[in-house]
Amino acid sequence: MINFENRLKSLKDRRQGTRERALLDNNLSIIKSIDVRTKENYEELSESAPVKYVIGAMAAVDSRSTQISIDEGERVADTLISMLGTSGISAEREIQGSVALDIHIEGHSDVDMLILKSDIVLVRTPKIDGSACIAHDNRPMIDIIRELRQQSEAKLTSRYYQADVDCTGNKSIALSGGSLKRKVDIVPGCWYHSHDYQRTRAKHYKGVEIYHKGDHKLISNQPFLHIKLVNDKDTLYSGNLKKVVRLMKNLIADMPDYKKRVAKNLSSYDVTAIVYDMNEELYCPSYLPLTLIEKLRAHLSLLVVSPELRNLILVPDGSRRVFDSEEKVEALVILHSEVTNLAKSIYKILNPYGLDAYNSHQLLQKKIFI
Fold this sequence. Notes:
By secondary structure, this protein is an alpha+beta fold.
């Protein structure tokens, strides 16, 4: 059986930081037997620990904590942009990733900040309007963005000398510690104007090319289309898409290490794509939230047994298959097992004298008003 009291403690610590950290942040003695952290809605429910855990795992992190992550990312990015300007490099910032989508599960979440050249872009040719592409910098774009990466490393290391500035990552420069309230990942790259963007001028069709340091190449990405597609479908299903993504990410975070190492072969991006593919299965009334566990369990069951269905699942922007390696299939099996155990554990709590190992009706019919 799952120890839900331990799960609730881990969930609380992820969402709000440990009690000890909260006391230090408030200049209070650790020896005092108090917890200054705010009680969240899921903690106030008159429900069993398993139900509280599920509701808490689905809920968005406190908006104030999320805003601190965003503010810190923007502060670091703006500082870097200003320093780059002194070297004649024009750049601008954009946020991407889990914090931008509000599917992060930690109160003190890392934040991904794109640093993009603002005075030169890659354009898909032939241009829609038929005009020629004229660049003021005749170097290959990969060399221009390599310079952006190198200058970013040098300036961040100099400016944030009290922090840990890790420049070993292929796609990002990671900053943590020192005066920083959050870990910030700086991702250098450039804009890419697709034909869809040239035709519509809609921001979500603007692509980016990220510099890969180790391979010295540019990697295509569509973070803003991903954000729009996920937000649109989440709105269509009353926030349930993001609830299920957060649940899955919390389940992975609470796995023992030997399982977690395998499960993490499915990235946050992959997990989001799996839930995105659930479509109508994401529908359920707000007062029947445990329905989402059963719908997720059934969805993962089908994916485990059917390679054909797995091969049909693409990331939201359609750029690649989710299950493109055996390692990801192994991660799926573990995640399916974890969701199944969660569903069975909740069933036993709701129906302690039942003879069945599991009956989905208990979860489908359990009303919870938050």
